[in-house]
Amino acid sequence: MEKKRVLVSGGAGFIGSHVTVELIEAGYDVLVADDMSNCDSTCFEGVKKITGRDDIPFVKMTFCDAAATEKLFADWKIDAVIHFAAFKAVGESVAEPLKYYKNNLESFMNVIEAARKRGCNILFSSSATVYGEPDILPVTEQSPRMPSTSPYGNTKQMCEDILRDSVKAYSSIKGIALRYFNPIGAHPSALIGELPRGVPNNLVPFITQTAIGKRECLSIFGNDYPTPDGTCQRDYIDIVDLARAHVYAVRRMLDGKMEQDYEIYNVGTGTPLSVLELVKAFEKVNNLKLNYKFAPRRDGDVTAIWADPSLANEKLGWKATRTTEETLAAAWAWEKHLAGK
Ligand code: UDP
Known about the structure:
This protein is of the alpha/beta class. Helices cover 40% and strands 16% of the residues. The chain folds into 2 domains: 5-185 and 236-269 and 309-317, Rossmann fold (3-Layer(aba) Sandwich), CATH 3.40.50.720; 203-233 and 271-308 and 325-336, UDP-galactose 4-epimerase, domain 1. It has helices at 14-25, 42-51, 66-75, 90-95, 97-117, 151-169, 203-212, 239-254, 275-286, 310-316, 324-338; strands at 5-9, 29-34, 58-60, 80-83, 121-127, 175-180, 182-184, 218-221, 233-234, 236-238, 262-267, 273-274, 292-295. α1 (14-25) runs parallel beside α2 (42-51), α5 (97-117) packs parallel to α6 (151-169) and α9 packs across α11 (324-338). The chain starts with a strand and ends with a helix. Uridine-5'-diphosphate is lined by residues 182, 201-203, 206, 218-221, 232, 234, 275, 298, 301.
């Protein structure tokens, strides 16, 4: 039987590269497209090494270019698309909202436009940011979405709505939105991982860069939150587990198993971890001491959020399997790989 081909837009980035690996290992053909505006070729080269596939097709392009997007879909037989191509820096989105609205919305609409003409189903990479500061934990897919504090968060909500409305109007397509909690870690091979530009905003890259000596000290933003140890709680999901959720979702789409035209799934572990717990776990598993201090709260941070992942467990047949220890060891191995150690 002919293999199905999945287009991974933004496939050279952190999440996209891990998803590409898992799709190939699950037997799919993958077409990677990326404008390389926020990454270099490190991860794509790593994907080739991990999979032993030197021939993964790659197209350098931006999905903001409607004609180029249309041409891509005309040139290749694409069975499903996973859309990652988007800007993702929360702070930058506050400073440059139009850049975010233009890029993140336009590129997604161009993808949908090309996909709908060909009956190609769409998986959108959404985020738990749509839940804001939830009143009830854990959050289910039915939990209300809250007004976002950043244009970045708004684009996630808007893209969800664009997809929902599009699948309703165009009977040729179906869509799935995966709401990621906090993706962390790296591939166990240490050949692909997160490559933040400049000072990392996210916790785990900041931790690994501090441990390797690139940063002097980790600031833990706030230890006076109403949580068991005073630091924020999140649902940290291993990047390989997260990537596998995409394979299950794509399979559901391609095998005609979707029960609704538009489905949403939380992708998390269901277990909260505080910043302090995560720091301590990192120290323990990697047998090192991290230089950290408590600092004031960071603007825009929610106190606590974690997923109820039971819908994804049940409908996708997916479950997070990797332990926090495995994940944090992989994150550290990746940082050492980058440092050539
Ligand atoms: N955090 C921290 N120091 C840092 C970066 C993050 O204490 O240098 C905390 C942040 O306040 C939040 C958690 O780590 O409670 C996760 O933050 P991250 O930016 O990784 O993800 P977010 O949940 O904001 O999307």
